[in-house]
Amino acid sequence: MTPLPLSHLSVLDLTAHRAGPTAVRQLADWGAHVIKIEPPSEGKNDSMGGARHGFDFQNLHRNKKSMTLNLKSPDGHAIFMKLAAKADVVVENYRSDVKHRLKVDYDTVAKINPRIVYGSIAGFGQSGPDAARPGVDQIAQGMGGLMSITGEPGRGPMRVGIPIADLTSGLLLAQAIMLALYNRERTGKGQWVHTSLIEAQIFMLDFQASRWLMKGEVAKQAGNDHPTSIPTGVFPTKDGYINIAAAGDKMWKRAAEALGAKSLLDHPEHATPALRSQHRKALNERLAEVTKTNTSAHWIEALNTAGVPCGPINSIDMTFAEPQVQHLGIARPVNHPALGDIKVVGQPINLSDFPQPRELKPTPDLGQHTDEVLAGLGYDRKAIEALRTGGVI
């Protein structure tokens, strides 16, 4: 069986919450040997207050080994450094100053392992006036401008329904780690790579950010309407709602014809993209009068046949029931010793040799592999018991 692409890598995972674990999940799913290092505790709950056997923790931490280690103790720190000396990657998402207090920062690790790639995520960056502030996803969504452009006009700021700053910062850190590993192949030297929730959130503003930077336009809330591509939005049908994206003259013409509403093409307020933008509200109302006359399925088929992007607005259960989603296989089975057969969210990346990573391993219980990891470092049973009695593990 061909090894997964990252099966030659050893990763030490010091992360908690969501952003850091998202980065490590990308490495673990593609074969990296990950040791998740956690403080000794009862192990019933995760760092976000949810159950360790709950859906969130199980989805975030599969394909890892788990060991407990008190990094504040001299013996615990010594064990970490022994592991770090042999590792390829360390990932952490402490507040920017914590790793230095624990003496597990990049400079400390690089002294014993110059090849280490050390990945960090903080709320607001590793330096600067806000570096030491605590930061979580919703704070980044607000500070990073996203909440000001999400939701309907006049309703006040609105958060996005997923922790988008956490998730995107984690994915971007995984990419940064890959870049550093690729560079290490040429130079033989590791480096410190880092991002933050606020940087990731601003990066994800994308065209809305460049709209301000280049044109001085401050985007406003537009609800379900696309802020610049018109008509693109949500339209009522006889039995629900659909999304239609018909921006540009060619797509607008196709949409009007597929909807059986060619008369809309002749309306003076619809003649150009600029006019359609200027009269967006009226245009949407005219389209809604048409779409309300038939079912969602009817319009989806008619518009897609005409080459106009159109689709249902699903609840999450309906999303996983979509034939195309089932074909893609993104709901991945896991056999857990306590929970039985469960499913988690798989990878959206497909390689020709690995359309999806092979069988996923269940998320480990707290400290499940502590003895195994320590034995690999040369500790015998007596020494391990002494560490446990001393509260090091």
List the helices and strands and how they pair.
Elements: E1 10-13, H1 19-29, E2 33-38, H2 55-60, E3 64-68, H3 74-86, E4 89-92, H4 98-102, H5 106-112, E5 117-122, H6 137-143, H7 146-149, H8 164-187, E6 192-196, H9 197-205, H10 207-215, E7 232-237, E8 240-245, H11 249-258, H12 273-278, H13 280-291, H14 296-305, E9 310-312, H15 316-321, H16 323-328, E10 331-336, E11 340-345, H17 370-376, H18 381-389
Parallel strand pairs: 1-2, 1-4, 2-3, 4-5, 5-6
Antiparallel strand pairs: 7-8, 8-9, 10-11
| C-alpha-based Rg, rounded | 25 Å
What's the pLDDT, averaged over the residues?
Answer: 95
**Could you give a short account of the major beta sheet?**
6 strands, parallel
According to CATH, what is the topology of the largest domain?
A: Rossmann fold
The count of β-strands is: 11
The helix/strand series, from N terminus to C terminus, equals: EHEHEHEHHEHHHEHHEEHHHHEHHEEHH
Examine the secondary-structure arrangement and name the CATH architecture of the largest domain.
3-Layer(aba) Sandwich
Strand content: 5-15%
How would you name the CATH homologous superfamily of the largest domain? Crotonobetainyl-coa:carnitine coa-transferase, domain 1
Strand order of the largest sheet: 3-2-1-4-5-6
CATH class of the largest domain: Alpha Beta
Outline: elongated
Q: Which structural category fits the helices and strands? A: alpha/beta
Which runs of at least 5 residues are low in confidence (pLDDT < 50)? none
User: Number of DSSP helices?
Assistant: 18
Helix content: 40-55%
**Total number of distinct structural domains:** 2
